[in-house]
Amino acid sequence: MNLTGKQKRFLRAEAHHLNPIFQVGKDGVNENMIKQISEALEKRELIKVSILQNCMEDKNDVADALADGAEAFVVQLIGNTIVLYKESQENKQITLP
To answer: How much of the chain is helix, strand and coil, in % rounded to 5?
Structure first.
């Protein structure tokens, strides 16, 4: 399943007021980070991840790695901020249009 343009627009609006809860630094993406992001997505469904200036990896690669590892969707990649969405199994809060 892919997100439609309308769904992405809705999720971007929902994520606007959120603050990043994870930061990707010079070590890049690792298994522990992916595990924590998966758990956070299960609780919140929609999160922001900030990419620090000292991160050596390309931001598109970081976004893809996080999305693949957490089995989530990249809603938006703007500047150095990634917005990720994954439908929760137990804590469903967001209803997509």
So the answer is: 40, 20, 40
Give the CATH number of domain 5-85; options: 3.40.50.2300, 3.30.110.60, 3.40.50.300, 3.30.9.10. 3.30.110.60
Task: Name the H helices within the chain.
Answer: 5-15, 31-44, 59-70
pTM comes to 0.91
* Other CB atoms within 10 A of residue 10 CB: 18
Rounded Cα gap, residues 10 and 6, in angstroms: 6
pLDDT digits (tens, 9 = 90+) for 18-51: 999 999 999 889 999 999 999 999 999 999 999 9
DSSP state of 59: H
